[in-house]
């Protein structure tokens, strides 16, 4: 196995190359080793200290739909395994949870996406649907199917067989915060963001009505956002990375309403988690795959030969965006990035972002239709 030694540092965001050339299945063990090596580095361990000092550690992979990892739609299980093994070496005895929520397309809307899938994927899901028990809840079925197709079911079962406290948590089944505690979170989030960054009132209310009660508990939770680099079908987001993986991905119910004020809604929910966890959050964007064009579900699978990591998730996402698109001016103009800057994180200076350009992959963005 040939190790890719170079680790780059862009404004305290660490970037390591995972492989050279086009990704092949035979490189899977190399992916694991390179991720593991980066996580053991002094800079990463220092930035992850708050997460490691938590009572329980959650990993939020990107599991946007029931598709296999090679589609670039979801986090590769080898990246999840590398992180879990790293945690098990350092935080013995602490629970580790892979956390996810429900969505329409993972449940009752699953039939809506079948026609968009390649025949092999469609046949596999239809076969599972035919074997579904009549009384099984469709959301539970979709959630379990996602874990199975994504390789996480077998991964978790393997840890359990060896007595490790590793499991999956369906956050949508957890109780929500009571109004009094929710109000305390509201006050702190509103103070952090300021009035100009507030989402529409009806959206804000729905977000605040669905804060998981665990954010107000005495047990300290550390959260790792493990994202896949993908272009996005909403111009206010443009890319999907670590902030969206939390801000959209960790809302407990259906997310469609958030698209009515997408950037502000996503950032407000991310702020809820940032405040509720007292900054015990770390961001990772990892290959081997990403998606461009019609992402974040049905885009073109493309190579992403990097792992990007840091404790300031806005900086992580900005570095990732330049690696993906190779357009520094565009990154600094994106609405979500502008709204998050200096409140939820700090954008790297232009000169630092320009240093990333030689490593850019020149992904094709989502083909937005002109409104003219």
Task: Provide structural commentary.
There is one protein chain. By secondary structure, the protein is of the alpha/beta class. The model has no long low-confidence stretch (mean pLDDT 93). The strands form 3 sheets. It has an 8-stranded mixed beta sheet, with helices on both faces. The chain has a two-stranded antiparallel ribbon with strand order 7-8. Helix 1 runs parallel beside helix 4, helix 9 (179-193) crosses helix 12 (262-276) and helix 10 (201-208) runs parallel beside helix 12 (262-276). The chain is 40% helix and 15% strand.
Entry summary:
The protein has helices at about 30-40, 40-45, 50, 75-90, 110-115, 120-130, 140-150, 150-160, 180-195, 200-210, 240-245, 260-275, 315-325, 330-335, 335-340, 350-355, and strands spanning about 5-10, 15, 55-60, 95-100, 165-170, 220-225, 230, 240, 280-285, 290, 300-305, 305-310.
């Amino acid at each position: 196995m040939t190790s890719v030694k170079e680790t780059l540092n862009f404004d305290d965001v660490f970037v390591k190359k995972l492989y050279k050339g086009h990704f092949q299945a035979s490189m899977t063990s190399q992916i694991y080793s390179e991720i593991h090596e980066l996580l053991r580095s002094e800079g990463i361990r220092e930035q992850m200290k708050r997460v490691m000092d938590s009572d329980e550690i959650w990993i939020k992979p990107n599991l946007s739909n029931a598709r296999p990892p090679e589609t670039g739609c979801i986090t590769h299980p080898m990246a999840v395994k590398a992180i879990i093994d790293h945690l098990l070496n350092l935080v013995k005895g602490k629970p580790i949870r892979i956390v996810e929520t429900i969505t329409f397309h993972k449940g009752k809307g699953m039939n809506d996406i079948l026609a968009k899938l390649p025949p092999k994927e469609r046949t596999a899901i239809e076969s599972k649907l035919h074997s579904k028990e009549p009384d099984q809840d469709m959301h539970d079925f979709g959630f379990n199917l996602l874990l199975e197709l994504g390789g996480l079911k077998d991964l978790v079962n393997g840890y359990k067989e060896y007595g490790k406290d590793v499991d999956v948590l369906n956050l949508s089944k957890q109780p929500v915060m009571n109004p009094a505690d929710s109000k305390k979170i509201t006050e702190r989030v509103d103070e952090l963001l300021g009035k100009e960054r507030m989402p529409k009132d009806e959206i804000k209310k729905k977000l605040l009505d669905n804060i998981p009660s665990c954010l107000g508990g005495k047990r300290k939770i550390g959260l790792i956002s493990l994202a896949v680099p993908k272009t996005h079908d909403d111009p206010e987001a443009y890319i999907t990375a670590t902030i969206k993986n939390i801000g959209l991905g960790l809302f407990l119910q259906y997310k469609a309403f958030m698209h009515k004020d997408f950037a502000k809604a996503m950032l407000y929910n991310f702020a809820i988690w940032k405040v509720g966890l007292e900054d015990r959050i770390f961001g990772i964007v990892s290959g081997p795959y990403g998606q461009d064009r019609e992402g974040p579900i049905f885009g073109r699978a493309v190579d992403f030969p990097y792992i990007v990591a840091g404790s300031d998730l806005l900086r992580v996402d900005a570095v990732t965006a330049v690696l993906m698109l190779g357009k520094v001016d565009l990154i600094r103009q994106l609405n979500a990035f502008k709204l998050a800057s200096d409140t939820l994180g700090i954008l790297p200076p232009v000169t630092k972002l320009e240093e990333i350009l030689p490593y850019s992959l020149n992904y094709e963005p989502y083909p937005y239709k002109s409104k003219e």
